């Protein structure tokens, strides 16, 4: 039950974050959070970019998976029934096109980033500087309160 509650909270928070935050703002925020690690030569900007791209493409991958599953089912592939090897082959028939599609999207993104002059490791400037507002502090307080409650539940249970 405790793990289910934690999982639900993580899903809800991540969904709210990705639904209400622009990708650029998310990248800048993650980069700001990772900025202290630059002292240890950790590439904060590259990690922030990686996380924001991953978060951006998760819904696309889910949609693509559903599309491929429907196409495979229309061809008579059943992923839930049959012997173990039949199910493994059915899942492979899903994974291969999904992997090819993901690689194609990654290549398209890399080409677009290169065309816009993105070079990892180079000194970057910011068009937009993030500033903490009242609602940010309220959200931080809510997140901290949730963290304390979860720790308290972990200790009690």
Keywords:
single chain, 157 residues, mainly alpha, 5 helices, flat
Shape: flat
Order of helices and strands: HHHHH
Give the mean pLDDT.
83
Q: How many individual domains?
A: 1
Q: Span between N and C termini?
A: 10 Å
Mind explaining what this structure looks like?
The protein has 157 residues and is mainly α. The chain has one domain (2-117, 128-156). It has helices spanning 2-20, 23-34, 44-74, 84-115, 134-156. Helix 2 packs across helix 3 (44-74) and helix 3 packs across helix 4.
SSE order and pairing:
Blueprint: H1 2-20, H2 23-34, H3 44-74, H4 84-115, H5 134-156
Short synopsis of the structure:
The chain has 157 residues and is mainly α.
């Amino acid at each position: 039950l405790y793990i289910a509650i934690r999982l639900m909270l993580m899903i809800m928070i991540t969904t709210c974050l990705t639904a209400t935050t622009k990708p650029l703002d998310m990248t800048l925020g993650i980069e700001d959070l990772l900025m202290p690690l630059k002292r240890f030569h950790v590439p904060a900007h590259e990690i922030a970019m990686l996380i924001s791209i991953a978060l951006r493409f998760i819904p696309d991958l889910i949609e693509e998976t559903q599309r491929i599953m429907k196409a495979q089912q229309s061809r008579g592939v059943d992923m839930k029934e049959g012997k173990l090897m039949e199910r493994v082959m059915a899942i492979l028939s899903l994974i291969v096109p999904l992997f090819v599609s993901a690689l194609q999207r990654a290549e398209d993104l890399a080409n677009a980033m290169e065309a816009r002059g993105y070079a990892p490791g180079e000194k970057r400037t910011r068009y937009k500087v993030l500033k903490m507002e009242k609602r940010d502090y309220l959200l931080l307080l809510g997140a901290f309160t949730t963290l304390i409650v979860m720790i308290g539940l972990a200790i009690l249970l």
